[in-house]
């Protein structure tokens, strides 16, 4: 039985256990990183290599799609139309907070060789694990409805209204089969498709930026000088709430396992963490610029106008068209192309995340096509109902979007708290557990995000809750919700106190 120093390396499963576990990627699916052979005795982190950075590039860009989905674009355009340039600084810092969370997710996946859903399955009792799984699935379904509806709106615009919303939903639903087809050609091919979709978004929204010509000085001041007023507080909450997506925290910890990293060498794990940190930062800088384009376009076009409070995904393109006309290429279609790229890419990553979440929590050893079909069906059925009910009403579609934002806000603690607890635990992370300073900053960021989303929930329910039965139900749910959050936090504290004195050799049978 091999011995393993617990202070040096996270606990690894033996071969028989690994075969019994559902894994994010099979060994033959992983990308081989050049240079890992030939220096098995060298434990130091190898020098920086552009070629290796290129081979590690991909998971961070797939993760960044969640920062560019239709829900985020709607938050951007409403922030720009109602608050002008004044919330650009918040968009920047919210993206930075999102980057911190995603880097912790990547750290967990790289250091342990397993993703967040798998680790939650082992670390929590059955009842808590099932609650976490249900919450993750609900968050994913809520996000997926927004993404599919966003794609359907874009398809309706590009078809000049010939294809109704429900037809766009059916077309978008088929992307899971495209995803399965592309996955057969390898991880790198799939990542290349996402690179094209991100480039399409960047080009479309940059074109709109050029057409509308926002004020450069106001843009710079909006990024550098914090401003917040009572009139823009709801948009500010929306900007922060849209950035951290619960399913994306689960997704990134699995995506980083698509590279073949030698976990027996500390230097190789440090190397992987370094390259993933670089590519994730670059990916989110690009996503910030794209979000900035959208916000400033609508700030220039509609800030201070009577239309500002009535703009949503459904009518945004037409409002831009009415204001700026045709041009070389009608801005309505430029908007629709960017929206379609955002919707299609985010629905595919949603399907991907759903596979990892279901497989990780339930340890289901299903074929990938079957798991993708189940995941896709869970979102498409309610989305189709939504499309049929709300197709003719922009106002009711906006109300639905508010409810979906609330649904995802409710789920955020159930991804963040387990992540922070696990990444701080020495029994899980070994020497790669986060230090006291990073731990403090991470918990502060998590607390800030949870409080901000709590404000959104209170604001929403204070206006929507009417009648004693509904109010009673909300109160009961709130009590159970807060109790479960306190349970997760207390268990994290118990993890930390239990781990602190442990300085021993662990036997892996």
TrEMBL record:
Membrane topology: Multi-pass membrane protein
GO cellular component, one term: vacuolar membrane
Subcellular location: Membrane
Keywords noted in UniProt: Membrane, Transmembrane, Transmembrane helix
The keyword Cell wall biogenesis/degradation is annotated on this UniProt entry: no
Location of region: Disordered: 1-27
Skewed-composition ranges (Acidic residues): 17-26
Principal location listed in the UniProt entry: membrane
Molecular function via GO: manganese ion transmembrane transporter activity
Entry's Gene Ontology BP terms: defense response to bacterium; intracellular iron ion homeostasis; intracellular manganese ion homeostasis; iron ion transmembrane transport; manganese ion transport; positive regulation of reactive oxygen species metabolic process
UniProt key word Membrane: yes
TM regions (residue ranges): 88-110, 131-155, 161-180, 192-210, 282-303, 324-342, 373-390, 410-428, 440-458, 470-490
PANTHER family reported in the protein's UniProt record: METAL TRANSPORTER NRAMP3, SOLUTE CARRIER PROTEIN FAMILY 11 MEMBER
Family as reported in the entry's similarity comment: Belongs to the NRAMP (TC 2.A.55) family.
The protein's name: Natural resistance-associated macrophage protein, putative
Species the sequence originates in: Ricinus communis (Castor bean)
